[in-house]
Amino acid sequence: MDPATWSPRGPRAQGNARDRNVAEVPAQPERFDYHGALVVIETGEDQIVLIHPKGATPAAPASLPSDPCELGETPREAAVRISREKTGLDVVVEREFTTFIQHGTPTGTMCAHGYVARAVGGSLLLEGPEGPAIEYSLDALPRIVPVRVANQRALAAYLAYRARR
């Protein structure tokens, strides 16, 4: 299989259909340039962590911790690294809840992997590499930065996933 082709039955698929929002999994393989991880870090029953990128507007100030995977790193491993680097929290990844292809990112087409992780240690960064990491109640989430479309999609998939639990 071409390493830049993703298939839900191929070696890059992780977890099983119950772990992901399978409605977003493409029926036919799609080409992509890289894998990326987007992480919803749960700190309590109804609380998650978002970061506030520098330069974001007050109307839409937030983002999920997310980044491309590094060379040789699985998306799941990237989720743990990204969580630590961007929020200061140590996490345990509990499940992959969505996988989708996101076109038009600054670095090309991404195969995006959305993970739910549970905070198990560390402390929130007040001055992280993208800005402060802040804990929010699910009923008081700020809007996601408009250009971070993959973040918007992943957060919407997470909220839909939670509604089904």
Assign the CATH superfamily. Nucleoside Triphosphate Pyrophosphohydrolase
Radius of gyration: 15 Å
Structural class: alpha+beta
User: Assembly type of the shown chains?
Assistant: single chain
Give the number of domains. 1
Structural summary, described in words:
- This protein is an alpha+beta fold and 165 residues long.
- It has one domain: Nucleoside Triphosphate Pyrophosphohydrolase (Alpha-Beta Complex).
- The chain is 18% helix and 36% strand.
- Strands 3, 4, 5, 6, 7 and 8 form a 6-stranded mixed sheet that branches. Strands 1-2 form a two-stranded antiparallel sheet.
- A hairpin with a 2-residue loop joins strand 3 and strand 4.
- The longest helix has 16 residues.
- The protein is globular and about 40 Å long.
- The chain starts with a strand and ends with a helix.
- The N terminus is likely disordered.
Q: Would you kindly provide a brief summary of this structure?
A:
This protein is of the alpha+beta class and 165 residues long. 18% of the residues lie in helices and 36% in strands.
Features:
165 residues, alpha+beta, Nucleoside Triphosphate Pyrophosphohydrolase, 6-stranded mixed sheet, 8 strands
Lay out the secondary structure.
Layout (H helix, E strand, L loop, with lengths): L4 E2 L23 E2 L2 E11 L2 E5 L14 E3 L6 H13 L1 E17 L2 E15 L10 E5 L11 H16 L1
Parallel strand pairs: 3-7
Antiparallel strand pairs: 1-2, 3-4, 3-5, 4-8, 6-7
